[in-house]
Amino acid sequence: MPVITLTINDELVSGRRGESLLEVVREHGITLPTLCHMEGLSERGGCRLCIVEVEGSPRPVPACTTMAREGMLVRTHTTRLIRYRRMIVELLLAERNHYCAVCVSVGHCELQNVAAALGVDHVRYEYLSPRVTMDLSHERFGMDHNRCILCTRCVRVCDEVEGVRTWDIAHRGVRSRIMADLNYPWGESETCTSCGKCVQVCPTGALFTKGAAVGEMVKDPGMLRRVLEGRDRKEWEG
Ligand code: SF4
Ligand code: SF4
Ligand code: FES
């Protein structure tokens, strides 16, 4: 891949053509928070946590869906960006019911980790406190809509890696909900293979293994890489 040169936070850095800004930024040791991004899945650019400022662009752009280009001038941690990232996390926390103390993912939750890293110790917005349900109809797994941040990692892993697309999004705006098949209880899904990939990629306690204790609900971020690399090596072909 041809090498390109760009400036990130006043430092001249190199990247490869075809890489996203997020990839280049991370390759150079700069930490950018992400929630909807997951290596191995298509990019959605939905959570907006990875926003950066690019010279010439009137508004911040998500680094995960913006390609790195020759000569770009990029800033990753301006006061405005840090303020926006805090606001985004606070809005996510206000939108559903994130009672971390009683969540199966407490201590292993990416939302909680990002909030802590950004110094979010209170929420300035009114909590919407929606009445949302849990779906415990699946034999092995559960879905707690209270904790869902609509990152769609579950939708994408099911579609792009497992190849069945059990999950999708129903409704719009704050009423959006992840749904199985055409809004059936997960346990009645005719497409779900019970592979558990969606549970492993979910960044919060929204998707969990039934009966697992908090200490056992550590997600396995390396699972996706192992599956994809194994497929490349044709490990499971007879
Ligand atoms: S368990 Fe597997 S097949 Fe079922 S919804 Fe999750 S990713 Fe899709
Ligand atoms: S269930 Fe989990 S993976 Fe799926 S959209 Fe909600 S937070 Fe993301
Ligand atoms: S990680 Fe880039 S928008 Fe979510």
TrEMBL record:
Domain 4Fe-4S ferredoxin-type residues, every copy: 139-169, 183-212
Signal peptide (UniProt feature, chain positions): none
Keyword tRNA processing found: no
Cofactor: [2Fe-2S] cluster; [4Fe-4S] cluster
Cellular component, GO annotation: membrane
Subcellular location: Membrane
Keywords: 2Fe-2S, 4Fe-4S, Homeobox, Iron, Iron-sulfur, Membrane, Metal-binding, NAD, Translocase
A matching Pfam family: Fer2_4
Record SUPFAM superfamilies: 2Fe-2S ferredoxin-like (SSF54292), 4Fe-4S ferredoxins (SSF54862)
2Fe-2S ferredoxin-type domain boundaries: 2-80
Domain 4Fe-4S His(Cys)3-ligated-type: 80-119
UniProt GO MF annotations: 2 iron, 2 sulfur cluster binding; 4 iron, 4 sulfur cluster binding; DNA binding; metal ion binding; oxidoreductase activity
Family in the record: Belongs to the complex I 75 kDa subunit family.
NCBIfam families xrefs: PRK07569.1
Listed name of the protein: Bidirectional hydrogenase complex protein HoxU
